Amino acid sequence: MNNDVIKLKEVDRLEITTVLDNTADMLLPGNQTVQRFPRGKRLGEKVLRAEHGFSAIVRVFSGNTGEAILFDAGLSRDGLMHNLDVLEIKPNELHAIALSHGHLDHTNGLAGMLRRMGHQKMPLLIHPDAMLQRKVVFPDGHEMALPPPDKRVLRHDGIELIEERGPSYLLGNSVLITGQIHRSTPFETGFPTHWAKIGKEWQRDPLIHDDQALVVNVRDKGLVVLTGCGHAGAINTIRYAQELTGVRRIHAIIGGFHLSGPIFEPIIAPTIEALKDIGPAMVVPAHCTGWKATHAIAREFPDAFVQNSVGTRFVIG
Length: 317
Description:
Elements: E1 10-11, E2 13-20, E3 34-35, E4 55-62, E5 65-71, H1 79-86, E6 94-98, H2 110-117, E7 122-126, E8 133-137, E9 143-146, H3 151-154, E10 159-163, E11 168-170, E12 175-177, E13 194-198, E14 201-204, E15 214-218, E16 222-227, H4 234-245, E17 250-256, H5 268-278, E18 282-286, H6 291-300, E19 313-316
Parallel strand pairs: 1-15, 5-6, 6-7, 7-10, 16-17, 17-18
Antiparallel strand pairs: 2-4, 2-19, 3-19, 4-5, 8-9, 8-13, 11-12, 12-15, 13-14, 15-16
């Protein structure tokens, strides 16, 4: 993809608020860039929930004008709206929704939010493979079902459902959703125990092609890459963002890197080595990155590493 095809508009400032993640810690230190909840509220007055899922609000600013997008919706049906209420973020502030992929820990909270929205018009962007029935088959034969989003929910009054395999722009060309990510590394080879029902047959689906990321180009900083689970691989995702935009400088990588468990722990080391070559100023592993990978990243990137927590707001620019 060349720069004549995709031109990602620079923004003056970017704010990413973690609405849902696996951990909540109200005692973490913050600073001007990493702002921690409760930010002046009385402790215990309003409690944020953590869960095995991910969701973030992304706001981009050009001058004094800002627009917001919801990226993923978490696992529980009421967790997203509960935390939005605690964070005092109203659904009518949003201009679009994008889903990183179809697994229910990133989509299930949509129903509660859409009910609250009423008939508000809004585009909802998703890769068509996100609608496939999926499952994980464990070595002992045990299966874990991963049902897709309910199209009846996604076709809520006012929602414009957009199914797109390729890259897409939102918010006036200031936010890029990568679409299906090109795989270029020799070590990020997918999820071998992941299956999808295609037609009437269950087939291996290790690459999870619907995995996509959100990319913003912040003036004088470079690209900020936000992943949901990062099934395509953190390094594949970063390299594809660079390829799509023509921007080499990576300021931050935030989100799930999917390096947890015995299948993925062997690629922690090559991922870290590749990240060192890329040299982001901020690395924020979240959700499915895993304990071992998170601690290895903290050790190898002492200045760039930031521990995520529900309610954290990253202010860049």
